[in-house]
Structures are given as structure tokens and as C-alpha cells.
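Write out this protein's structure.
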Amino acid sequence: MTAEIAMPLLMRWLHVGTAIVVVGGLVFYRLVFVPIADKVLSDEEREKLREPLMRRWKMFIHPSIILFLISGFYNYIYVTSAQHEGQGLYHALFGLKFLLALGVFALAIIMTSTMTWSEKFRKNQALWAVLILLASAVVLIGGYMKVMPAGSNHASQIDSGAGAVSEEAGDL
């Protein structure tokens, strides 16, 4: 395997693998762990468990942010940017994905903090839902970007495809 293939492949694996761990962990925590802990643990037991749990989860979140930034910029700059040159939609989606990811990073840091200032945020269950929705949006946008055809204007392909359908319909 050449370096031309190995480095992009490694960066892709890092990016996708990190997303699996982080998004999966968030979904597990909010949709599995919290409801069960609320049912079987007292308030005191939940508080006693929360701090070491968040301390441990933070050890995944913080390095994951660095891995996302390194692998994401590598993939954009060295792998996909040239393939999608002139495709405004692709680059706009990257910008949107990046801004949403920054929101995910900030919220993840706040929600995993063990500092007293973050307690009111951590207890707000709606913010956990927002975090999961933002992370899901980032994944969905990334998935769409991955399947966009390279080297042509995607919007014009959609327009020409629609025109071909209407022309064929006229033949009926």
C-alpha cells in the first residue's frame, strides 16, 4: 500500500471511527444510561456516579475533538477539496458541517465538564437532545458530501437529470 492511499485511508478511518465512538456514546448515555439510572438510583447515587463517569467520558471527548479536527481538515484539504473544485454546494456544506461541529464540540465540553458552573447545563436534558441532534446533522451532512459526484456542478446534474425525466415524460 502506497503512502498516497495509506494516509487518506488512515485519516478516513480516524474520522469515521471517532464519530462512531462519540455519537454512539452520546446516544447511549442519553437514551440508555440516564433513563435506567433515573429509575434504579437515588439522587445521591446518581450524583456519586456522574462525576467519575463524566471524568472518564471527558478522556474520550477531548482527544476526539483533536482527532476530528486533524482528520477532517486533512480529508478536506488533501482529499476532497480538489475533487470538488468549483462545486459551491460542496464547499458550503463543508462550512455548515464545520460550524455545526464546532457547536457539537463546545456543547460536548460543557456537558462533560465536572466543574460547578456546568451543572445547570448538564441537568438540562433538552441540551443533551440538542447535542445528539447537532452531532447527527454533522454525520448526515458528511454522508451526503461523501456521495456527491466529484468534478462537476452537482446542482446542474440535478437540473439536467430533471430535464431528462420531463423530456422522457413528453415522449409518452
